[in-house]
Amino acid sequence: MTALPAPAPPALLPALVARLEAHAHAARGAFAPTERALRKASAAFTGWAASQDLEPLPALPATVSAFVYHLAASGSAPASIRPTMWAIGAMHWAIGAEDPSCRRATRSGW
């Protein structure tokens, strides 16, 4: 049986925000549409995870799969789900965690 990763300690969340803000500042607005998309998708995922009492960071592949299912059931097209998956990966990269959206189990449904 594979051990599940421990949920992100609350102390990691401020570090994530600080790191994302540092990246945004370094870009100096050159990527404003990308930044907006990242913020929107990240907020959607973390808000949904909180509403389901699930840990967004680090997220389990099953959490990401459930979110993708939620998006698809809500009428989101695959073309709009893919950027959200990218944002979830970016959030995990920012804290040095493995990207759960790259797991085969996560992607099998879409």
Largest beta-sheet details: none
The end-to-end distance, rounded to whole angstroms, is 26 Å
Strand proportion: under 5%
- Second-tier CATH architecture of the domain at 32-107: Orthogonal Bundle
Spell the H/E element sequence: HHHHH
pLDDT averaged residue by residue: 81
Radius of gyration: 14 Å
| Number of helical segments with 4 or more residues | 5
Helix content: 55-70%
Q: Indicate the low-confidence ranges by residue numbers.
A: none
Q: What's the CATH topology name of the domain at 32-107?
A: DNA polymerase, domain 1
What is the top-level CATH class of the domain at 32-107? Mainly Alpha
Give me a quick take on this structure.
The chain has 110 residues and is mainly α. It has a domain at 32-107: Tyrosine recombinase, N-terminal domain (DNA polymerase, domain 1).
Task: Tell me what you see in this structure.
The protein has five helices and no strands. It has a domain at 32-107: DNA polymerase, domain 1. The model has no long low-confidence stretch (mean pLDDT 81). By secondary structure, it is mostly helical. The radius of gyration is 14 Å and the shape is globular. The longest helix has 20 residues, at 32-51. 64% of the residues lie in helices and 0% in strands.
Features of this protein?
mainly alpha, 0% strand, single chain, DNA polymerase, domain 1, 110 residues, globular, 5 helices
